[in-house]
Amino acid sequence: MPTTAVYALMILLPIVATAVALPAGGWLRRIYVVGARLLLGALMLGGGLYKLSDNHIPGLMGPPMNHAFLAKYGLEIFAQFIGVAQLIIGLLLLTGRFALLGAVLLVPMWLNIIFLTWSQHWVGTPFLVTGFLVLTLGLLLHDYPRLKWLLYPPADPVVLRHAPLRTGPTSTELLWWLGTGVVIGGSLLYPLSFALMLGTMAAGLLLLLAAGWRLWRRRSAV
After folding, report:
1. Percent helix, strand, coil in the chain (nearest 5)?
2. Which end of the chain is more exposed for a tag (fewer CB within 10 A), N or C?
3. Going by C-beta distance under 8 Å and a sequence separation of 6 or more, which residues neighbour residue 191?
4. pLDDT value for 2
5. Gap between the Cα atoms of 20 and 28, Å rounded
6. Alpha carbons 6 and 131: distance in angstroms, whole number
C-alpha cells in the first residue's frame, strides 16, 4: 500500500470510528469509549515512563524522543516534565471518574507532539498522533453533557453549586489520592534506583487497586 494511503488511513479510520460509534450509541459507543480510553491511557503511561526511566521502560509508540535526542537541545528537564504530565494523564484516562479531565489535558499534549515531530521532519508520527487526537476529541464529544458547563456556564449557578457530588467514603478517597501520589512520586525516583522506582510505583498501584476494589464493593452492596 502506498505510503500516502497509509498516512491517510491513520487519520481517516479514527474519524470513521468516531462518526459511527458516537451517534450509534449503545454497546458500540461503550466499546469505542472504553477502547479509546484504554488505548490512549496506555500510550500516555508508556510514553511517560519511557522518559522518567531514562528509556528503560519501552512505550507502546516506540521511542518518540529519548534523552540523547533531547540532550542536544538542553531539554532533559523538559522531558521529565512531559513524562510526569503523560503519567498523570494516563492515570486519569484509565479511571472512569477522571477520564474527562484526562481527555481535556490530552488535547494540548497531542498538539505539542504533533508540532514537535512536524518541526523535526519526523515521517509518519504527525499523522499517527493526529489520529489519536481525533479519538481524544471523540471522548470529549462523548462527555459533552459534562464538558458543556466549562464552555457555557449555567444561567443559574446556584443550581450547579448545590448539585450532589459523586464521591466515595472519605477513607477510600484518601486511599485513592495517596496511591496516586505514591505512583507519581515513585516515577521520579529513577536517579536513585530503577528498582526503587518500580517498587514504589507498584506499591502506589496496589493502593489504587485497593481503593477501586472498595468502591466496587460499596456499589455492589447498594
Report:
1. 75, 0, 25
2. C
3. none
4. 60
5. 9
6. 12
